[in-house]
Design goal:
With 84 residues, the chain is mainly α. The chain has one domain. 23% of the residues lie in helices and 5% in strands. It is built from two helices and two strands. The chain has a two-stranded antiparallel ribbon. Strand 1 and strand 2 form a beta hairpin. The radius of gyration is 13 Å and the shape is globular. InterPro entries: ABC_transporter-like_ATP-bd (IPR003439), P-loop_NTPase (IPR027417).
Length: 84
């Protein structure tokens, strides 16, 4: 099953974006890909012309810290992170 096909959009500096859709429409998949929490099975994820799919984990973590923010619908811990 293909969750996303031919997705392309631009977010300008200072803009806020809401991702909305029916349950199972690929919202979480899209956000996980943008946040580099998941890797695409095809295609690429790019930000400002940089392909994020080949970036090492340390650089991905830095990218998430410096460029992304999430507001979750329900309180939830990210199972891809751990506390040390």
């Amino acid at each position: 099953m293909r969750a996303l096909t031919n997705i392309s959009f631009t977010v300008e500096a200072g803009e806020f974006v809401a991702i909305m859709g029916e349950s199972g429409s690929g919202k979480s998949t899209l956000l996980n890909l943008i946040a580099t929490l998941d890797d695409p099975t095809g295609g690429d994820i790019s930000l400002n012309g940089q392909d994020l799919s080949n970036v090492k984990e340390g650089a991905r973590a830095k990218f998430r810290r410096e460029h992304l923010g999430f507001i979750f619908q329900d309180f939830d811990l990210l199972d891809t992170f751990n506390v040390q």
